């Protein structure tokens, strides 16, 4: 077939540039028929991508392209460097048509004419269990606007997939951003209705003269959608993969906001923090009790509390008259106990701020001493002679 074609590369005279390949205009030497040739370079595109598109196009060959308004696929061939897909030649895409008309709003009656044809195309694709996944003005071609005003066909199946394939895509990244359906933005399961969303965006754009949702990134895209449709329902968000982890993260952020406050009077207390939905798992449990993530969190929390109770039996806290707290091992006589002083509010550097200065510790190793069988930090007593520590000199 390649020897029967003379090819001139370019996007003029009705050729379009596809998502996954350049498009050239060619002519059959045997018949003189002018065709469009999509060129897929093997260095740039993975073999599976090419085979996938070719398989979908082969399935469309038996379709009545005039009735279904889908571009007519003629043949394919390949050489060592490229794969060539041959289509009927169409005039121009809707994007170029808008540009030539200075993006003036299209009358509603013409939008209806275009929409009914594209709905017929989507209906046929649904019968074939196929999702186009990139419906936009650039992929909607005018056949011959002078002879058949607003007669269009759907082109470019480089992003298309079957419904079976869609079920196994865990993190889909399909559709051009302006026309990307919410389920794709939110990482939800999707079906052929993503194309219906895209068509709605195209209809609005034809009437407005600019994209309905011109987000500069996915976050901005969601913001635009929320500004017109409001926030999505909670159960819709909960259906997103990994939403239980996002819910848990939001709970942690909520707790952090109560812990990190300028005014200590507004700061949460430990007892209140223990009752917080993030700590008690109530926030995750209310929506995701049946998930593996909740079960793991619940198991970890139970294990930590059980371990805490076990350790608590061997840990005691007892204030004494000297203003110190003792921590040690219960039931073990004569074992080392770290004695931590608690300031009593006296002037810093005064011996009364720590202990009785008359009670002098015996000499011991540098840094530590052991009066009456207990370990104490030398800094709690000052020097070995019992004098208070020297004041810190001011910086020069």
UniProtKB/TrEMBL annotation:
SUPFAM superfamilies attached to this UniProt entry: Protein kinase-like (PK-like) (SSF56112)
Single GO cellular component term: cytoplasm
UniProt biased composition (Polar residues): 347-358
Keyword Membrane part of the UniProt annotation: no
UniProt keyword Magnesium, yes or no: no
Pfam families membership: Pkinase
Location of the region described as Disordered in the Swiss-Prot/TrEMBL record: 313-371
Keywords: ATP-binding, Kinase, Nucleotide-binding, Serine/threonine-protein kinase, Transferase
PROSITE patterns noted in UniProt: PROTEIN_KINASE_DOM
Record-level Gene Ontology MF annotations: ATP binding; protein serine/threonine kinase activity; protein tyrosine kinase activity
Domain called Protein kinase: residue spans: 9-279
Record-linked InterPro entries: Kinase-like_dom_sf, Prot_kinase_dom, Ser_Thr_dual-spec_kinase
Listed name of the protein: Protein kinase domain-containing protein
């Amino acid at each position: 077939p390649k020897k029967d074609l003379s090819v001139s590369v370019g996007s003029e005279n009705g050729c379009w540039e596809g998502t996954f390949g350049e498009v050239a205009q060619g002519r059959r030497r045997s018949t003189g028929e002018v065709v469009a040739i999509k060129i897929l370079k093997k260095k740039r595109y993975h073999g599976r991508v090419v085979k996938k598109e070719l398989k979908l196009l082969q399935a469309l060959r038996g379709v009545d392209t005039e009735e279904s308004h889908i571009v007519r696929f003629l043949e394919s061939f390949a050489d060592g460097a490229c794969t060539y897909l041959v289509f009927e030649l169409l005039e121009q895409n809707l994007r170029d048509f808008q540009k030539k008309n200075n993006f003036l709003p299209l009358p509603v009656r013409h939008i209806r004419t275009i929409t009914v044809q594209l709905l017929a195309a989507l209906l046929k694709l649904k019968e074939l269990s196929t999702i186009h996944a990139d419906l936009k003005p650039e992929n909607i071609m005018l056949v011959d606007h002078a002879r058949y005003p607003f007669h269009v066909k759907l082109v470019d199946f480089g992003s298309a997939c079957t419904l079976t394939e869609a079920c196994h895509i865990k993190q889909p990244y399909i559709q051009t951003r302006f026309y990307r359906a919410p389920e794709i933005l939110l990482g939800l399961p999707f079906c052929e209705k993503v194309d219906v969303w895209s068509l709605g965006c195209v209809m609005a754009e034809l009437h407005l003269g600019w994209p309905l949702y011109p987000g500069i990134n996915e976050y901005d895209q969601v913001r635009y959608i929320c500004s017109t449709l409001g926030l999505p329902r909670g159960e819709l968000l909960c259906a997103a993969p990994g939403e239980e982890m996002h819910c848990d993260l939001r709970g942690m952020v909520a707790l952090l906001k109560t812990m990190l406050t300028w005014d200590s009077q507004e700061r949460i207390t430990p007892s209140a923090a223990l009752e917080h939905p993030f700590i008690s798992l109530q926030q995750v449990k209310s929506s995701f009790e049946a998930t593996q993530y909740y079960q793991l969190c619940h198991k970890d929390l139970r294990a930590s509390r059980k371990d805490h109770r076990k350790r608590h039996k061997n840990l005691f806290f007892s204030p004494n008259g000297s203003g110190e707290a003792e921590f040690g091992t219960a039931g073990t006589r004569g074992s080392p106990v770290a004695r931590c002083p608690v300031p009593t509010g006296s002037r810093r550097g005064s011996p009364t701020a720590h202990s009785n200065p008359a009670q002098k510790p015996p000499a011991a190793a540098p840094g530590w001493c052991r009066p009456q069988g207990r370990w104490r930090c030398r800094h709690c007593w000052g020097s070995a002679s019992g004098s208070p520590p020297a004041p810190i000199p001011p910086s020069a």
